[in-house]
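Morning!

This is the sequence you dropped in the shared folder:
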Amino acid sequence: MNLERVSDAFRENFSLRGELGASVSVWHRGNEMLNLAGGFCDRDQTKPWTSSTLVLFWSATKGPAAACVLHSLQRHRLTLDTRVAEIWPEFAQNGKSAITMGQLLSHRAGLAALDEPVPIFDYPAVIDALAKQAPLWPPGDGHGYHPRTIGFLMDEIVRRLNDGLPLGDYWRMEFGEPLDLETWIGLPAEQLGRVVPVFAPRSTERTVPTMFDKAFRDPASLTRRAFTSPAGLIGVSSMNTREARMASFPAFGGIGTAASLAKFHAMLANGGEIDGRRFFPAQTMDWMKTTLTSGFDRVLQVETAFSAGFMKDVPDASGKKLRAMFGPSATAFGHPGAGGSVAFADPESEISFAYVMNQMGTGALPDERAPALIDALYG
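The structure's back. Tokens below.
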């Protein structure tokens, strides 16, 4: 672990890689080893960014949300083999009765998009549409990232298992408050003044368009449909509104600091325990670490891998990682967020890492900024 090199790479992100405002936090064996913050909260560069700056971190929310689902499953003595319909009977419609929790959490359920254009702020309508939706491919037959719908699916599972308690409230009750985390899935009104806006990529064009880029531009593609359903909140600026910040979107609406996001993952990197309190037993930790699916992603149009709710790095035939988003360890797991944010746990090295920023890059997977920090960390 080379913290000095991380500091150098962090500075270079501003001088060489177009960083505006950002924080990075690194923990080891349950203790914070590095907390860096720099840049500005606004493009006019009038308000300095600090370690207490709150910012949206998009799909890096999926890890904490998945942890809430897994925590609920273990509390009710359920497993990844439990059928979703046993928890949520209406889900069984249109050929979904056999879908398991493991398939759902690893993006194999075939529910990446909705045929019905329901508004994203209408939770009951979205849940009803998901219950009625027929799988877009045979469940279990490969995977395709569920960028938006997975959040509603996880939220409903938590509600069904906890007397209607929304996932965002479960997060605060079981993790946020006990761990004193400045991270929310649905921001309270009293915290709104601390949040900085996120900014769309300065350029959305790559020199050589990727398969994802081409698919995203096609309105009829599964990729475009997955990233635009439920309907609404498509533009980056729309996520800067009070309404979006206060809504609970477990797939992409998490707001917080790098230090809090890293502390949560430090608990996961430390075997499910931190500060003398155990949150997860070994079996649940294995659910997070164990790859359930790996291969070509129908939505992201690249090779991806998933455990139960977390993303994993994909190995090639020799076992070498195709992309080391989460460092060199094969047991590491976490989740990136659109535009560049990343958070992960590395149980092998007992390291956790979180990086958040306000200037988005292009694409759903990390650009060069977070990998520069992670490469420097592991040397």
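Headline: The chain has 13 helices and 13 strands.

More detail when I'm at my desk.
O.
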